[in-house]
């Protein structure tokens, strides 16, 4: 099975997977508006790949229903909040 993978210029690390190239009919209009103009990254032969950047089973299930898969970028860690918490402080500094 070949799956088309698209990226968006609006958000780094966000990808949209659809079962057919240039077929966004299953993708909700609101999501397409938020995603913006999809830019084809690659045609992915899912069954020939052992490892993917996403859960292979979830991806295949999503191709059946709802007919697309949206990969969100990893959550950016706030290093300052983490450091403050490790020091036993409030994650955010108090306002003066």
UniProtKB/TrEMBL annotation:
Q: One of this protein's Pfam families, by short name?
A: YcgL
Q: Which InterPro entries match?
A: YcgL-like_sf, YcgL_dom
Q: Domain of life here? A: Bacteria
Residues spanning the membrane: none
Gene3D superfamilies, per database record: YcgL domain (3.10.510.20)
Q: Identify the residues that the record assigns to the YcgL domain, covering every copy.
A: 1-84
- Family matches, as HAMAP family: UPF0745 (MF_01866)
What is the name of the protein in this document? YcgL domain-containing protein C6Y40_16550
Q: Which organism is it from?
A: Alteromonas alba
């Amino acid at each position: 099975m070949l799956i088309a993978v698209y990226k968006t210029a609006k958000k780094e690390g966000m990808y949209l997977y659809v079962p057919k190239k240039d077929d966004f009919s299953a993708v909700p209009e609101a999501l397409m508006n938020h995603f913006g103009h999809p830019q084809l990254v690659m045609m992915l032969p899912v069954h020939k790949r052992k490892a993917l950047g996403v859960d292979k089973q979830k991806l295949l299930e999503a191709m059946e229903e709802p007919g697309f898969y949206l990969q969100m970028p990893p959550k950016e860690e706030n290093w300052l909040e983490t450091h403050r918490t490790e020091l036993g402080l409030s994650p955010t500094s108090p306002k003066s």
